[in-house]
Amino acid sequence: MRKIYDQAIWDLRGVVWEVEMYQKDLEAFQPQFILLHDLSRHISHSKEILDVALDTVDSITHQYSLLDEHHPAPETRLRWQSRDIEQQLYFAMKSLRSTKLRCISLSERLQNEINLAFNIVAQRDNEVSIQMAKHSLTDNTMMKTVAIVSLVYLPGTFVSGIFGMNFFDFDGLSDKAGMSVSRHFWVYWIITIGLTLATIMIWLLWFNGKDIKRVLGKRKRRGQTNEG
């Protein structure tokens, strides 16, 4: 049975060693968390079995010592046989303890590989975040450029739009010489100012809707409290 325990730990050691070699190649590394979890579970079970075996051997040793001390006929027992049994029990205890120490060391090595896998994944996520931040910075620069160009051409667009309307007459067909302005030109300003204010109000309500609801809710609760 002792050999079976020892062989099981050596087999697990071989798998952990393969994991260590695999995770050294960072470029081709793909985290195998399910495999690492299964290995950790098997090692924990092996440690539990070794603890039970050690406790069993310790109990046998203790009971044998009691039997040896209270032997009904001490003169009939063979001393060399007693020493041989004691040595075998001692050797079994030492062997199981050594196997348990290897199991503990194996568990620590595996935990180190699990931490390494998590760190590699976190590092890759950070690299992706950095790349996304760089792309966002580039996009922001492009949007800023578009905004600046729009601001440069906005006055010209506004002026051309104003003078392109039918409110102005540049053909000299009216009674007055030169440019004439329609008497309904005020309609343009009324509609434009109204639409501009409505657009600003809609944007403010949409952007600050949550804050407005929170303030109104506080006022409503405060009013209910005062009434109560």
TrEMBL record:
Entry membrane topology: Multi-pass membrane protein
Listed GO MF terms: cobalt ion binding; cobalt ion transmembrane transporter activity; magnesium ion binding; magnesium ion transmembrane transporter activity
Keyword entries, A-Z: Membrane, Transmembrane, Transmembrane helix
Superkingdom of source: Eukaryota
Transmembrane segment boundaries: 146-165, 185-206
Protein's cellular compartments: Cell membrane
GO cellular component: plasma membrane
Entries under PANTHER family matching the protein: CORA FAMILY METAL ION TRANSPORTER (EUROFUNG) (PTHR46494:SF1)
Protein name listed in UniProt: Mg2+ transporter protein, CorA-like/Zinc transport protein ZntB
Species whose genome carries this gene: Penicillium brevicompactum
Organism classification: Eukaryota, Fungi, Dikarya, Ascomycota, Pezizomycotina
